[in-house]
Amino acid sequence: MRQTLVAGNWKLNGSLDSVKQLISGITAGEADTGDTQIAVCPPFVYIPLVANLLADSKVAWGSQDIADQESGAFTGEISGAMLNDFGCTYAIVGHSERRSIYGEDDDFTARKFAAARKAGLTPILCVGESLEEREQGITEDVVSRQLDAVIKLEGIAAIGDSVIAYEPVWAIGTGKTASPQQAQDVHAFIRGKLAGLDQSVADKVQILYGGSVKGANAAELFTMADIDGGLIGGAALDADDFLTICKAGA
Ligand code: 13P
Description:
Elements: E1 5-9, H1 16-29, E2 37-41, H2 47-53, E3 60-63, H3 80-85, E4 90-93, H4 96-101, H5 106-118, E5 122-127, H6 131-135, H7 139-154, H8 156-160, E6 163-166, H9 180-197, H10 199-204, E7 206-210, H11 215-222, E8 229-232, H12 239-248
Parallel strand pairs: 1-2, 1-8, 2-3, 3-4, 4-5, 5-6, 6-7, 7-8
Helix pairs in contact: 1-12, 5-7, 7-9, 11-12
The chain binds 1,3-dihydroxyacetonephosphate (13P).
């Protein structure tokens, strides 16, 4: 049985005060979230603070991005070793906002995935199609291509030690959630593709859904056979909303 994981991606949001408030709200309610695994991914600069505030909590933390390089003249980058110094468990790689706004392609994402693993972090690999791609009927091709870049560089076994997040771009921040069946269809496709390469990896890997997950729709999504939790944007910025989603996975 795969455990449910609910991870909050805070994106470019927060302040010293709001981070303290949010973490205190989450820790106050975490006891009611059963065996749901929980993680938060703050902006880099708040990671040390979050690490301190979560020292006695079951809630893990991670980064929203990671350098593909280990060290050196790479201005503005944050390495896996640095994230490790602050107790990160996870590193999100290939979020659609990195891909579409900052031009990060499949190969670059694969190198970031490799960098996370090398530093002992669990990559949360984001995949997903745009609205045009869905309308063209090439959702599976796109997701396949995004996965293949990582499998080619790191091998199929590496996927077993990671988390995959299926985030249809058209559902992110739009209020348009994929229906549970639409999401399940793509999750089943991903798991089936992995099973064709290694059944044990397919059985083990957690595949999260992301895109306008809220307290009101989380339970329905999480009961689908191949949906093992969620990667949450907007609703992860409110402790009560986030906890409601975590409880839906319990
Ligand atoms: P929203 O939950 O705000 O749609 O964002 C989803 C997302 O991009 C999480 O990584």
